[in-house]
Amino acid sequence: MCFVFFVFFVFNLQLPNKSLLLAACAACIGGTFQYGYNISVINAPTMYVQNFMNQTWRERYQIDVSQEFLTLLWSTIVSMFTLGGFIGVTIGGTLSVKLGRKGTLLTNNVFALVAALLMGLSYPTGLFELLIIGRLFTGINAGIAICVQPLYLGEIAPTAFRGAMGMGTSIFITGGILTGQVVGLKEILGREEYWPILLATTCIPAFLQLLILPWFPESPRYLLIDKGDTEGCKKALKQLHGIADCDAEWEDIEKEKNNLKGVKAKKPWELLADRSARWQLLTIILLNAAQQLNGINAIYFYADYIFKQAGIPNDKISYVTVGTGACECITALTCGMLIECLGRKVLITGGYTLMSICCILFTLTLSFQVFNITNMYVSICCFFLCQGGVTNILTTELFTQTTRPAAYMIAGSVNWFSFFFIGLVFPFIVIGLQQYCFLVFLAICSLVVIYIFLVVPETKNKTFLEIHNEFQPSSSRKASSVDGAGTTLLSGPL
């Protein structure tokens, strides 16, 4: 929180309402922070969990488990997180309509608490199967969070701060990854006797959110547009934006409600068939696929190899990995402050351009047969600099209230499927291409840069309806009756 205030001061930016920042933190701590935390925390106890499964198998059947089957069991534990995430996003949008954005986030903590209980009890009960079920529940928790939390942040934020607030998703994901890496160090909970406690710590963010988030209101847009609660919406706006700044947001929400009168929330398949949203939908599908296929997750999967090839001793790799997590966290924080200055398009194209350059540098560095100290630093710097584009906020901005939940379900499904796909395919890419494996990601990042430059408009300081109209053909915009602000919704197919 102090860092946020500091950066706003350095860049001479107007500070958002304190209640708004606290509401965002409350939503994120039990949301995408959990997602990042559960991605990284599973890495530290890998060997200890495998020893536990082997010991349990021996006690049950008086024989050691084969190495191949042990690898399969461990892969199942890890991959259950991805399967759970896919399940989570498929139900997250529906829950956000029925329970509300805030209600869904609070309910979602049940999955985290059950997961913590199951994984914590796996060792004392001698049931490694509880780890598989527990990881499935953590994945469901993460899938719902990655779907609903950006939705909540985008809807509670005023137009001027929507980009910075939306970046809270990335900031807390990287914060969760860093926290999981730090807690997994041997000096904290990374020793063999502590691994059940380490995996059970996923309950802590859940408890924090259950304690803090109830003090903050539901999304004002959800209250007025979905529920028709005028008084609730005004009260929420006053708490989140302050009495002096809530009138403009109220007018914007009321205008969107009037344009959406009689239009029901769309299902994912209905959105897929809506020709008026085809370019928005294609954009978020491509960006969410690219977010996983741009090489950054492959770098994480391949981190040990990269650092070993760079000449870093084995006993120091875990600390270097923490350094990468810290660098990524700082980068996300900085981008969160810059997004309202530079705009979304500049940051996304810049991020993928940087990824393209890093893929080239990785290829050149890994191609040397003898690794010296210079190559080691090049590898580390490339790893530090590899940051993905600003994607999550665009899913909020490119859609209106009735299509936004379905858009998040589609985007999240693509994201999790791509996550699963790259984890499955990357080892074979490495075997086939060896040191040239990052050229695949170079091609993907370059294509994304071209698409964003040609197709995606700048959304900074524009209302949701103005952004919607940006994607419509010029002939349709001219034919439509547009008010002074240019915010008439074109809801029918073109």
Tags for this model:
Growth Hormone, Chain: A, disordered C terminus, 74% helix, 2 domains, disordered N terminus
CATH class of the largest domain: Mainly Alpha
Summed up, the domain count is 2
Order of helices and strands: HHHHHHHHHHHHHHHHHHHHHHHHHH
Q: Structural class of the helix and strand makeup? A: mainly alpha
- The chain-level mean pLDDT equals 80
CATH-defined architecture of the largest domain? Up-down Bundle
Protein name: Solute carrier family 2, facilitated glucose transporter member 5
Family: Belongs to the major facilitator superfamily. Sugar transporter (TC 2.A.1.1) family. Glucose transporter subfamily.
Subcellular location: Cell membrane, Sarcolemma; Cell membrane
Membrane topology: Multi-pass membrane protein
Describe the structure.
Helix content is 74%, strand content 0%. By secondary structure, it is mainly alpha-helical. The chain folds into two domains: 17-216, MFS general substrate transporter like domains (Growth Hormone, Chain: A), CATH 1.20.1250; 265-478, Up-down Bundle (Growth Hormone, Chain: A). Helix 12 (220-226) packs parallel to helix 14 (246-259) and helix 20 runs antiparallel to helix 24 (438-455). It starts with a helix and ends in a 15-residue tail after the last helix. Residues 1-12, 383-389 and 477-494 have low confidence and may be disordered. It catalyses: D-fructose(out) = D-fructose(in). It is a multi-pass membrane protein. Residues 1-19 form the signal peptide.
